[in-house]
From TrEMBL:
Any Pfam family matching the protein: GMC_oxred_N
Required cofactor(s): FAD
Residue ranges annotated for the Glucose-methanol-choline oxidoreductase N-terminal domain, each copy included: 114-137, 313-327
Lineage: superkingdom: Eukaryota
Signal peptide: 1-18
Listed name of the protein: GMC oxidoreductase-like protein
Sorted UniProt keywords: FAD, Flavoprotein, Signal
InterPro entries xrefs: FAD/NAD-bd_sf (IPR036188), GMC_OxRdtase (IPR012132), GMC_OxRdtase_N (IPR000172), GMC_OxRtase_C (IPR007867)
GO molecular function: flavin adenine dinucleotide binding; oxidoreductase activity, acting on CH-OH group of donors
Family (UniProt): Belongs to the GMC oxidoreductase family.
Length: 634
C-alpha cells in the first residue's frame, strides 16, 4: 500500500506552517471574482469533494469556506498526555449542548463537532469501522419506490467501491500481527488516497481478557468486518498513518497533501457561510453564497457558476439552509425569514448513538503489564515518548481509543426480541408512532410518513440475525458500554431565534420513543453476562454497576436513565436522503429538493444511523458525491 510522502510526514509531525499556509486565504479580497464550485465547510466530506473536483476539472475553480482554521490535530493519546483515556490537546471544536431531556431525567446531551480544517475527522476518536451492508441496503429501501428509477444507487453495492477508494489501509508487520492476533482482509481495501488506516503496534496487556470473555459468550470471531458482514467480534483499524502513528484526517489527506499542485483549489478560513441566496427564485440556481468574516463581521457574496455544495455537518448544514429560507415554513416565518422552499425535514430527523454501560472489579487480578497505570512511572513515560518519535513509531502513544468491538444482533441477545420488534410494528400499524415525534412536526403528514417508513425498516433490520443492534468496544480496564445502533427516538436542530448566526437549538429527543428503553434494557442484560464468563471468573470478577442489588427491570431502567451516555458523537440525519413526500431534504443525487444548483454532502443526508462510527461513512459519501458531480459536469 502507498505510504505518505516525506513532506506530508513532516507536516504531520508538526511543521504545520510548511505545506498549506501559502495557499490559505484569510480575506475575501484574496479570492477570485467567481468560482465554478463553492463548498460550504472544510470538513471530512467537504474536503473530499473539493479534492476530487479540483483534480477532475483543472480548468474549473473550487472554493472551500471553513469556519475554523488550519491546525495540528493531535491523536487521541499523544504526548505530553500522561493519562491514557484522559483529555489531552485537541484541534478546535464546537460544543453543542442539547435542551434538557425529560425522558432521561432532564439530563442534557453534549457533542463536539470539528471547528478546524478537516472537521470532525481532526478531533474524533479515530475508530475507523464501516457499516453493515444491510444498513446501506436499508437506506436505499426507505427511498423506494419513489426514487427507484434513479441511477444513483446508495445500497451496499453502490457505496462499497467508495469505501474502498476513500482510504489506504496498511497491514501490520507480521510480528505485530502475531503478538496481538490481528486479522484482516486486504481485498476490502484498494485505495491510494492519503487517508490512512492501520493497526497500532501496541495494545494494553489486559486487552485479550474481554475479547476472550466475548468468545466465551459465543460471539463469532470475524477475520474482517469492513467487507459488509459485521455480526461478531471485530478487529477495527484506526485512522492513523502506519509509520508516524499520527492522526490521519481530511485536512491532511484532502488538502495539505494535494493543494500545492492545484492552482484551481482555494480555501478561505475563519469565515462563516451564513446562507445561500436565490435572487430570482429557487429554480434559478446555483445560488449566491453569503459569507461572514469572523474577524470583522462583514458580509460578502460569492458567485458560483456550477454548483454550491453544503458540507457543514449535521448541526450547521440545517442552520445554513434555514437561514436561506429552506426549511419548515412555520419556523422560518417565526424567525422573520422569507420562505424559499418549504422543506419541513430540514433540521428534523436528528439522531445520535447512545447507550448505558456496566463495570466490574477483579478480586484476583492477574499480573498484567503494561497497563495504563504504568503511565505513573516516569521511566515508562519517557520511553513511551521516545518511542512515539521513532520511525516507525512504537509504544502506547500509537494507541487511540480502541481496536476491539463486538456487533451483536438483537435476536442473539434477548429472548424478548420478537416482542420488541412487534411493538415497533404495532405503533406504525396503529398510527401512534407520530405521538413520539417532536411536537413541532408530529402533525406534518410527510414527516410522519417518513418516520413510519424508517421504523418499519428498523424493525426489519432488528429481525435479521445478520444485522447488529448493539456495539461494544474495549481497549483496557473494567468497563464497557452498550451502544444502541438503530435508535427509534428523533430530535431536532433549529435556528437560535435570538441570534441566528450562533449555535442552533438542539433537542436530542433521547428516549422519547419508549421502545428505545426496551432495547437499552436488552443490551444491558446481555453485557452483564460477561462478568460470569469463564475468562472473567478466573480473575474473580464482581459486578460493580449496575450491581447485584439492581435486578428488576424497573431498577435497571432507573439505572439506565441515570447512567446513559446520551451522545457517542455521531450526529446525523438532519437533511435526510428521502423523497420529499416522506420528509426528505435531498434526493439520491444529493440535490436539495426544489433548490436548483444546491447539494448537501455530509452526515446530515443519512436517513438513519448505521451500525458504525461515522468517519469512514463521511469519506465514502464524499467520494460518491464527487463522482456524481463529476458525471454531471463531464
Amino acid at each position: 500500500m502507498m505510504l505518505m510522502t516525506g513532506a506530508v510526514i513532516t507536516f504531520l509531525v508538526g511543521a504545520v506552517s510548511a505545506v498549506p499556509h501559502a495557499a490559505i486565504k484569510r480575506q475575501v479580497s484574496q479570492l477570485r471574482d467567481h468560482y465554478d464550485f463553492v463548498v460550504a465547510g472544510g470538513g471530512t466530506s467537504g474536503l473530499t469533494v473539493a479534492d476530487r473536483l479540483s483534480e477532475a476539472f483543472p480548468d474549473k475553480t473550487v472554493l472551500v469556506v471553513e469556519y475554523g482554521d488550519i491546525e495540528y490535530a493531535p491523536g487521541i493519546f499523544d504526548p505530553p498526555l500522561a493519562v491514557w483515556g484522559g483529555v489531552g490537546a485537541s484541534a478546535s471544536y464546537f460544543i453543542v449542548q442539547s435542551l434538557p431531556l425529560p425522558d432521561v431525567k432532564n439530563k442534557t446531551a453534549f457533542v463536539l463537532a470539528g471547528k478546524v480544517v478537516g472537521g470532525s475527522s481532526a478531533i474524533n476518536g479515530m475508530f475507523f469501522d464501516r457499516p453493515s451492508r444491510h444498513d446501506l441496503d436499508a437506506w436505499a429501501s426507505v427511498a423506494s419506490p419513489q426514487l427507484d428509477s434513479s441511477q444513483n444507487r446508495w445500497g451496499w453495492s453502490g457505496l462499497y467501491p467508495f469505501f474502498k477508494k476513500s482510504v489506504t489501509f496498511t497491514a501490520p508487520p507480521a510480528a505485530v500481527a502475531q503478538t496481538y492476533g490481528y486479522t484482516w482482509d486486504t481485498s476490502v481495501y484498494s485505495g491510494s488516497t492519503p487517508i490512512y488506516s492501520s493497526f497500532p503496534p501496541f495494545l494494553w496487556a489486559d486487552h485479550h481478557l474481554v475479547r476472550n470473555a466475548w468468545a466465551d459468550m459465543d460471539v463469532p470471531k470475524l477475520q474482517e468486518c469492513a467487507g459488509g458482514n459485521k455480526a461478531g467480534l471485530c478487529w477495527i483499524p484506526i485512522s492513523q498513518h502506519p509509520v508516524t502513528a499520527r492522526r490521519s484526517h481530511a485536512g491532511l489527506g484532502h488538502y495539505a497533501a494535494v493543494n500545492a499542485t492545484r492552482s484551481n483549489y482555494d480555501l478561505i478560513v475563519k469565515h462563516q457561510v451564513t446562507r445561500v441566496i436565490y435572487p430570482n427564485g429557487s429554480q434559478s440556481g446555483p445560488p449566491m453564497v453569503e459569507l461572514r468574516s469572523l474577524a470583522n463581521n462583514q458580509l460578502f457574496n460569492i458567485t458560483a457558476s456550477a454548483e454550491v455544495i453544503i458540507s457543514a455537518g449535521a448541526f450547521h448544514t440545517p442552520t445554513i439552509l434555514q437561514r436561506s429560507g429552506i426549511g419548515r415554513a412555520a419556523l422560518l416565518s417565526t424567525a422573520g425569514i422569507s420562505i424559499t422552499v418549504d422543506l419541513p425535514g430540514v433540521g428534523s430527523n436528528f439522531q445520535d448513538h447512545s447507550g448505558p454501560g456496566i463495570s466490574w472489579a477483579y478480586t484476583k487480578p492477574g499480573n498484567f503489564s503494561p497497563l495504563p497505570s504504568s503511565m505513573s512511572d516516569p521511566a515508562f513515560v519517557a520511553d513511551a515518548v521516545a518511542g512515539f518519535g521513532e520511525t516507525p513509531a512504537r509504544g502506547p502513544y500509537t494507541l487511540a481509543n480502541s481496536n476491539s468491538a463486538i456487533f451483536v444482533p438483537l435476536g442473539n441477545m434477548s429472548a424478548n426480541s420478537q416482542t420488541i420488534i412487534s411493538r415497533i410494528k404495532g405503533i406504525v400499524a396503529d398510527g401512534s408512532a407520530a405521538s413520539y415525534l417532536p411536537a413541532d412536526y408530529r402533525d406534518d403528514a410527510t414527516m410522519v410518513a417518513g418516520y413510519n417508513k424508517q421504523l418499519a425498516m428498523i424493525a426489519k433490520l432488528l429481525s435479521d440475525p445478520r444485522v447488529p443492534s448493539m456495539e461494544s468496544t474495549f481497549a483496557t480496564g473494567t468497563s464497557v458500554r452498550a451502544v444502541h445502533l438503530h435508535p427509534l427516538s428523533r430530535g431536532t436542530v433549529r435556528l437560535n431565534l435570538t441570534d441566528t448566526l450562533q449555535q442552533p437549538i438542539v433537542n436530542y429527543g433521547t428516549g422519547s420513543n419508549p421502545i428505545d428503553f426496551d432495547i437499552y434494557l436488552a443490551h444491558l442484560k446481555y453485557l452483564r453476562a460477561m462478568v460470569n464468563t469463564t475468562t472473567l471468573r478466573k480473575y474473580g470478577a464482581v459486578e460493580v454497576s449496575p450491581g447485584n442489588s439492581t435486578q428488576t427491570d424497573a431498577a435497571l431502567l432507573e439505572y439506565i436513565k441515570d447512567q446513559l451516555v446520551l451522545s457517542f458523537m455521531h450526529p446525523c440525519c438532519t437533511a435526510a436522503m428521502l423523497p420529499r413526500q416522506h420528509g426528505g431534504v435531498v434526493g439520491t443525487d444529493l440535490k436539495v429538493h426544489g433548490a436548483a444548483g444546491l447539494r448537501v454532502v455530509d452526515m446530515s443526508v443519512l436517513p438513519f444511523l448505521p451500525s458504525s462510527h461515522l468517519s469512514s461513512v463521511a469519506y465514502a459519501v464524499g467520494e460518491k458525491a464527487a463522482d456524481l458531480i463529476i458525471q454531471d459536469w463531464s
